[in-house]
Design goal:
It contains three helices and two strands. The protein is an alpha+beta fold. The protein has a two-stranded parallel sheet with strand order 1-2. Helix 2 (30-45) links the parallel strand 1 and strand 2 (50-54).
């Protein structure tokens, strides 16, 4: 993928840095989560530079746990800040807290 984009940028004379982002990689169930653990690393091997994990279709606790479980498969590992996507706002819902390394699943 990166080679294709690079060739296209060269052909069009684009000289600014270009990022390839996998926007909203959807996780809807445990099968999707298992597949993501295999597929996400291959996306980065093909040249993608960033990804947004979207498990917003899951209950809030499973959304958070899915993001935590997939964080090691994203380059940068636990030092990066995962983006938790919430599609619904619930009244009085507690804010996400920063996880300590001992609480990672």
């Amino acid at each position: 993928m990166a080679r294709t984009v690079d060739a296209l940028c060269n052909e069009l004379g684009i000289t600014v840095p270009v990022a390839l982002h996998a926007d909203h990689y959807g996780i809807r169930n445990d099968k999707d989560l298992a597949q993501a653990k295999v597929e996400i690393p291959t996306l980065f091997e093909t040249g993608l530079t960033s990804i947004a994990i979207d498990a917003s279709h899951l209950p809030d606790d499973k959304n958070l746990l899915a993001n935590v479980a997939l964080n090691p498969f994203v380059p940068g590992g636990p030092d990066t800040k995962p983006r938790w996507v919430r599609s619904k706002v619930k009244k009085d819902f507690p804010r996400w807290k920063k996880l300590s390394s001992s609480s990672v699943v």
